[in-house]
Design goal:
The chain is built from three helices and six strands; from the N terminus they run αββαββββα. By secondary structure, it is of the alpha+beta class. The chain has two domains: 128 residues, Nuclear Transport Factor 2, Chain: A (Roll), CATH 3.10.450.50; 34 residues.
């Protein structure tokens, strides 16, 4: 097995995925997804088969109201577990636009690809967002911070009233 050749073929597979995301054409990847495909995707979704992946992506776009603008899938490591099976880890950097607003998503991925009749097909995928620096937890954290501030203010005011009433 020529590992350099296969690494290049896998890198080309990921370039094809980048194009499909930017062009909003996941359907063009149908032949590159293994029939037994499954994935764990943010925030905590399971996608099974190409249709599961396609439906997840469509829901993500429609719920967020942000369209794709650019994506970079950077492979950190490709490890061949045995001939025809590759474990690929890397990072994804996405920029999505809505009007003049941009949303940035950074994530990590682990993918298992299998080679069938010379072509690499995605059989397993796990993606996770940066737990601290992403628009979803950022908004939640801001809401939690505001709620914690409000609770703190109420507790402070209650304590002040209680101390003030005991002094009288």
């Amino acid at each position: 097995m020529d590992f350099n050749h296969e690494r290049t073929a896998i890198a080309q597979w990921f370039r094809r995925l980048e194009r499909a995301i930017v062009e909003d054409d996941l359907f063009s990847l149908r032949d590159t997804i293994h029939p037994e495909f499954s994935a764990i995707l943010p925030p905590d979704e399971v996608a099974v088969g190409f249709n599961g992946l396609f439906n997840y992506y469509r829901a993500l776009i429609s719920e967020s109201d942000y369209g794709p603008a650019s994506v970079s899938l950077d492979i950190d490591r490709t490890q061949f577990l045995w001939e025809g099976v590759a474990l690929v880890t890397g990072t994804a950097h996405e920029k999505r636009l809505r009007g003049g607003d941009a949303m940035y998503l950074d994530s990590r991925f682990t993918a298992v690809l299998v080679q069938e009749e010379g072509d690499w097909k995605l059989v397993r995928l796990h993606c996770s967002l940066d737990p601290l620096n992403n628009p979803y937890t950022g908004a939640r954290a801001q809401g939690v911070g505001i709620a914690a501030g409000a609770v703190g203010a109420l507790l402070g005011a209650g304590t002040a009233l209680l101390v003030g009433s005991r002094r009288r």
